[in-house]
């Protein structure tokens, strides 16, 4: 009864208008009044019956949708293929399937993120443990008497000092990574003369290079060219790439090359070092990824350098390209917008 009352309330005006129109039409056709009343009563009954059956049909559809949503919520439906609302609700079914897929993707992304976070924490603790254990070991040995042994005391102190440096580098890299990934990295762009900037960085590496028998050189055709970049961040990129080239080259050449395209300049860092196996090339930009963990650790690497490089170059709207041949050397390059002089 409540339902019928609600239908009448909702459709009262429509029924009234149709009755009025029917009355006018029948009067114009000069139907006798008694017949008009009968016809109007019939029209009223038929329209109410129609409205009630339509309403019943609509309620059935709503119940179907509600039950489907409840089944999704209770995980009774595990794939979009199980959602079936029938042909009359095809578009609603499509929308619910899309929502199901989105929810499914969101949940698997959250699970992936959770896994990445746990892995990251595991990696961080592992990497911190290595230098801390080493420092602890050397100090313990020194405290237990080795401090008075002139054969080892300086050696152990120097080793402990090297590990504190590694620890410091690791913490700095971690701070950078977390700043970058939380979106707190503020970029400060401008046009800068690239050649003197690179010459200065290369000069800082010249001693380390010389010690290893590696020549580091810069090749550029235009000394006055300006690149659009964040100078400090680009410095970080160059330091990481050049130090990798030196670290992973036994002897030979590390070259920084500047080449020009119409609107862009390309910075390339290439070396004649150990190279990177093809299967690892796609992964070297992942945090903590090292081709040869022991070798990298021996040269003080934690596998964060290229992750930072990738983030910074991406922030410049560019992409790092890598080419490498095992035993022959590696080439890292990326484009930067250059100043166009008119
Ligand atoms: N020029 C290169 N030649 C050969 N292998 C390289 C070169 N650059 C990077 N790699 C490989 O890629 C890995 C990742 O490099 P990345 O700079 O991220 O880490 P890392 O040098 O080991 O440590 P970090 O830079 O954090 O001190 C390195 O461990 C190394 O195996
Ligand atoms: Mg590195």
Care to give the gist of this entry?
By secondary structure, the chain is an alpha+beta fold. The protein is 61% helix and 14% strand.
Please supply descriptive tags for the structure shown above.
two-stranded antiparallel ribbon; binds adenosine-5'-triphosphate; elongated; 9 helices; 342 residues; binds magnesium ion; 5-stranded mixed beta sheet; alpha+beta; single chain; 7 strands
Ligands, ions, cofactors? adenosine-5'-triphosphate, magnesium ion
Q: Sheet bearing the most strands, described?
A: 5 strands, mixed
List the helices and strands in order.
HHHHEHEEHEEHHHEE
Query: Which percent band covers the strand fraction?
Result: 5-15%
Spatial separation of the terminal alpha carbons: 83 Å
Oligomer: single chain
- How many helices in DSSP terms? 9
Rounded Rg: 37 Å
Total strands: 7
- Return the structural class: alpha+beta
Percent of residues in helices comes to 55-70%
CA-based shape: elongated
What does this structure look like?
It is a single chain. This protein is 61% helix and 14% strand. The chain contains 9 helices and 7 strands; from the N terminus they run ααααβαββαββαααββ. The chain has helices at 2-28, 33-73, 90-143, 153-181, 194-212, 231-247, 278-281, 293-298, 305-315, and strands at 189-193, 214-220, 226-230, 252-260, 264-271, 321-325, 329-337. The strands form 2 sheets. A 5-stranded mixed β-sheet has the order 2-4-5-7-6. Helix 3 packs antiparallel against helix 4 (153-181), helix 4 packs parallel to helix 9 (305-315) and helix 5 packs parallel to helix 6 (231-247). It starts with a helix and ends in a 5-residue tail after the last strand. The relative contact order is 0.07. Residues 173, 240, 244-245, 248, 271, 273-276, 284, 289-292, 296, 301-307, 330 line the site of adenosine-5'-triphosphate (ATP).
């Amino acid at each position: 009864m409540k339902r019928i009352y609600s239908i009448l309330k909702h459709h009262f005006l429509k029924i009234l208008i149709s009755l009025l129109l029917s009355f006018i039409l029948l009067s114009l056709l000069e139907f006798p009044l008694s017949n008009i009343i009968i016809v109007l009563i019939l029209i009223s009954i038929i329209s109410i019956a129609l409205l009630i059956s339509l309403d019943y049909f609509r309620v059935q559809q709503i119940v179907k949708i509600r039950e489907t949503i409840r089944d999704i919520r209770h995980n009774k439906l595990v794939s979009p293929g199980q959602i079936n609302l029938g042909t009359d609700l095809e578009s609603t079914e499509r929308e619910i399937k899309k929502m199901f897929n989105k929810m499914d993707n969101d949940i698997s992304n959250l699970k992936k993120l959770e896994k990445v976070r746990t892995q990251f924490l595991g990696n961080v603790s592992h990497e911190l443990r290595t230098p801390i254990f080493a420092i602890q070991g050397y100090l313990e040995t020194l405290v237990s008497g080795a401090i008075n042994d002139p054969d080892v005391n300086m050696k152990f102190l120097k080793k402990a000092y090297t590990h504190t440096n590694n620890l410091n580098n690791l913490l700095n890299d971690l701070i950078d990574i977390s700043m970058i990934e939380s979106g707190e990295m503020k970029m400060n762009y401008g046009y800068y003369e690239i050649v003197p900037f690179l010459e200065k960085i290369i000069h800082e590496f010249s001693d380390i290079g010389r010690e290893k028998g590696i020549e580091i050189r810069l090749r550029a055709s235009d000394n006055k060219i300006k690149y659009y970049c964040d100078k400090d961040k680009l410095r970080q990129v160059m330091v990481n790439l050049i130090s990798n080239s030196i670290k992973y080259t036994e002897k030979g050449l590390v070259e920084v090359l500047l080449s020009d395209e119409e609107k862009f300049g390309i910075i390339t860092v290439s070396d004649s070092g150990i190279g990177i196996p093809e299967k690892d090339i796609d992964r070297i930009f992942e945090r903590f990824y090292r081709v040869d963990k022991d070798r990298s650790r021996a040269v003080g690497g934690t596998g964060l350098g290229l992750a930072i490089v990738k983030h910074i170059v991406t922030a410049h709207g560019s992409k790092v390209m890598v080419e490498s041949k095992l035993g022959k050397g590696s080439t890292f390059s990326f484009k930067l917008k250059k100043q166009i002089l008119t």
